[in-house]
Write a sequence for this structure.
C-alpha cells in the first residue's frame, strides 16, 4: 500500500482538527429537482454558478491585459463551462455553518482556479493527452503546449492572490487558510494523487492503492473546499470535523461516480472524452471492483456524507441536496 500523508490521516481518518486555535453546464440536468426553502436545486445551482462566474470575472486579469495570450488562455479554460462543484460546495458549507456566502466567495473562487489549472495540466500531451474538456478543445489544442503550461501555472498562482481577498475570522487566521489550500494542491495531496495515477497506468492496482489515488487526486480538493467555507464562517471545531468527514466521503463518492460515468456515458454528455480510463488502463473503481460494486460504494459513501451532516440544522439542506444530486448525476 502506498504511504498516506500524515495530514490526510489527521483530516480523514481521525478527524482531528489541527488548527482551530488561532456552465454548471448551461443546461443543468433536472432529472432530480429537490427543493429546500423556496428554492429548488436547479435554480440554486444556476444562481450559485452565476455568482461564482461573476466573481471570477472580477478577480481575474482582463482578457486584453498584457500579455493578452496568457490571459486569454486562462479565461478560455476557466470560463469553459465547468460544473463549479468545488466553489458551490465551499459556499454551501459556509451557509451550513451559518456564515455569509460573500465571505467565502474569494476562497471558493481560489479553489476553482486551482482545479482548472489541474485540468489544463492533466490534459497536456505529457500527462493524460486529451483534446476535449468542458465541452470544447483543450487549452493546449488552442494555445499550444507552452502557453497551456503557463496558463495552468498562472491559474494556480492567481488562486492565492484571490484567496488573499478573504478575511480571517476569530478562530481561523489567513495563514491557516493559505496552509489549507497549499496542502490540498501540493505534492502530498493533489499532485501526489496525480503521480500515483500516472504510475499506476497499465498496472494492476489494489483497492487500497486506488483509494489513495482518489483520496488525494479528488477528495482532498473537495474536502478543503468545504473546510474553507466552514472556516470563513468561523465554525466551531466540532462542526469543522463534521464538515471534513462530509467533504472526504463526498469527494470519494464523486470520484467513484466519475469512474462509473467514464464507462457508462458518451463524450458528448460528459463534455470530455469518455472511455479514456479503459483505453489508458487507468486505475478506476469499475476496473478494480466492477460496475455494480462501484455503484454500491458510491451509495455507501454518499450515506456516510449525509450522516456527517446530522449535527447541522436546516442551514445544511443545500449540502444534503448537493450530495444526493451528485450521486444521481449523469455528467
Ligand atoms: C495536473 C497536478 C495535476 C493534477 C491533475 C484534475 C486531475 C489531477 C486530473 C483530471 C482527471 C480526473 C479524473 C481528476 C479527478 C478529479 C475530477 C473528477 C476532475 C473533474 O472534475 P469535475 O467533474 O470537472 O468537477 P468540471 O470540468 O465540471 O469542473
Amino acid at each position: 500500500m502506498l504511504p498516506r500523508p500524515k495530514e490526510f490521516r489527521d483530516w480523514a481518518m481521525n478527524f482531528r482538527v489541527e488548527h482551530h486555535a488561532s456552465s454548471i453546464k448551461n443546461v443543468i440536468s433536472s432529472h432530480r429537482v429537490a427543493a429546500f426553502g423556496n428554492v429548488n436545486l436547479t435554480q440554486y445551482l444556476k444562481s450559485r454558478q452565476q455568482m461564482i462566474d461573476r466573481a471570477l470575472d472580477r478577480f481575474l486579469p482582463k482578457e486584453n491585459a498584457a500579455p493578452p495570450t496568457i490571459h486569454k488562455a486562462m479565461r478560455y479554460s476557466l470560463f469553459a463551462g465547468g460544473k463549479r462543484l468545488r466553489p458551490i460546495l465551499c459556499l454551501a458549507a459556509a451557509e451550513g455553518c451559518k456564515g455569509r456566502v460573500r465571505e467565502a466567495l474569494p476562497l471558493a473562487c481560489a479553489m476553482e482556479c486551482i482545479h482548472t489549472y489541474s485540468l489544463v495540466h492533466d490534459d497536456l500531451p505529457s500527462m493524460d493527452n486529451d483534446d476535449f474538456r468542458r465541452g470544447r478543445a483543450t487549452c493546449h489544442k488552442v494555445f499550444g503546449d507552452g502557453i497551456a503550461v503557463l496558463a495552468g501555472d498562472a491559474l494556480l498562482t492567481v488562486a492565492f492572490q484571490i484567496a488573499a481577498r478573504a478575511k480571517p475570522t476569530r478562530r481561523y487566521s489567513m495563514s491557516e487558510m493559505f496552509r489549507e489550500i497549499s496542502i490540498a494542491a501540493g505534492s502530498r495531496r493533489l499532485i501526489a494523487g496525480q503521480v500515483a495515477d500516472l504510475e499506476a497506468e497499465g498496472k494492476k492496482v489494489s483497492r487500497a492503492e486506488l483509494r489513495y489515488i482518489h483520496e488525494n487526486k479528488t477528495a482532498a480538493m473537495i474536502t478543503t473546499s468545504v473546510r474553507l467555507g466552514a472556516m470563513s464562517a468561523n465554525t466551531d471545531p466540532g462542526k469543522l470535523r463534521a464538515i471534513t468527514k462530509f467533504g472526504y466521503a463526498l469527494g470519494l463518492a464523486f470520484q467513484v461516480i466519475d469512474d462509473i460515468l467514464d464507462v457508462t456515458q458518451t463524450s458528448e454528455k460528459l463534455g470530455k472524452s469518455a472511455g479514456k480510463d479503459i483505453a489508458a488502463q487507468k486505475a478506476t473503481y469499475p476496473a478494480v471492483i466492477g460496475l455494480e460494486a462501484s455503484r454500491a460504494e458510491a451509495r455507501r459513501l454518499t450515506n456516510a456524507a449525509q450522516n456527517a451532516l446530522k449535527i447541522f440544522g436546516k442551514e445544511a439542506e443545500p449540502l444534503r441536496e448537493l450530495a444526493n444530486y451528485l450521486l444521481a448525476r449523469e455528467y
